[in-house]
Amino acid sequence: MITITPAAAKQIKESAQQNGLEGASLRLAAKRTPDGGIDYGMGFEEHEKDSDLTFKSSGVNLVIEPGSVELLKNAVLDYVEMEPGEHRFIFMNPNDPNYSPPDGLNAPPLKD
């Protein structure tokens, strides 16, 4: 499914703690854009739906709705420093034809 890097897991856990949401799952969502790319969403979820896929990566409980599963297959969620002092979450996703990894980051191979 999707892999959460240790850096992303650490930031997710810290954010949950800061917001009083320890034990909440992280919901990930993805949808196709008109140009074929993928838009991503994420947020904490305390109540999963029966239809949700739930699993764990790097100690983080994840929730994904069925419609997002194929779009997130083999993706990696990382937390990186884009520029000095500027950190953000990035999805490295071989399913996204518009994805291009930032310089110096190890990313999954892109599909042909």
From TrEMBL:
Source organism superkingdom: Bacteria
A single MF term (Gene Ontology): 2 iron, 2 sulfur cluster binding
Protein name: DsrR
Organism from which the protein derives: Thioalkalivibrio nitratireducens (strain DSM 14787 / UNIQEM 213 / ALEN2)
Source species taxonomy: Bacteria, Pseudomonadati, Pseudomonadota, Gammaproteobacteria, Chromatiales
Region (Disordered): 1-20, 93-112
Domain Core, first and last residues per copy: 2-82
Pfam families: Fe-S_biosyn
Family, per entry: Belongs to the HesB/IscA family.
Gene behind this protein: yadR [C]
GO process annotations (BP): iron-sulfur cluster assembly
GO cellular component: cytoplasm
